[in-house]
Amino acid sequence: MRIRSLLSSLTLTAFLLAGLLIQFSPQDAAAQVKKGKRFSSKGNCLECHKEADFAGGTKHKPFAENKCLSCHKPHGIVGVLRLKDDIKTICLECHDQTALGLDRKILHKPVADGDCTVCHNPHAGEGKGILKEASPQLCYGCHDQSDFERVHKHKPLEKGCFSCHEIHGSDHKGLLVKDEKDLCRDCHDTRAAGFAKAHATPLIPPISPAC
Description:
Layout (H helix, E strand, L loop, with lengths): L1 H23 L9 E2 L2 E2 L18 E2 L1 H4 L22 H5 L14 E2 L1 H4 L11 E2 L43 E2 L9 H6 L7 H6 L13
Antiparallel strand pairs: 1-2, 3-5, 4-6
């Protein structure tokens, strides 16, 4: 009796598993077809993964062109995120390291850590650079927002952090876009009487008349 009961239970379990496989496995999804020890690399990922799940007005080019295997390895019926390589290596297959400023002296921490997805959405996002959020909200994900919400605010902050700071790397402290003295001169007239009065000691030497 025990053996018969055990066989019945095993048979029922097998039928249930078969039913689940049929229900959750798209029959035409070639990416799910196992060929020997490897999975097919010719399937359409969007047969299983819905494009609507990757919201954003600006799409990453490989995603827009349905070239998921530019970054991902295919997988079988058990879904698991498998990238071809580490994130930074994958990104640099298409994006130029020098153009991004990754060769500069000072690197933004997410860049130094090799994790581009701290700021960028790998599939789709809003605006230039498929950022997860616009500046300054994106920056507040790591930087304490209260430090930038005091009574008197630096005017360029209204235009976002990128008015003064580089995104990936810089040769200047604080990831500034240029030397701090030259940067301040872009907005402030260091020869004006008001500027001189506000600074007891000239933090920024005035530009000589010859210049």
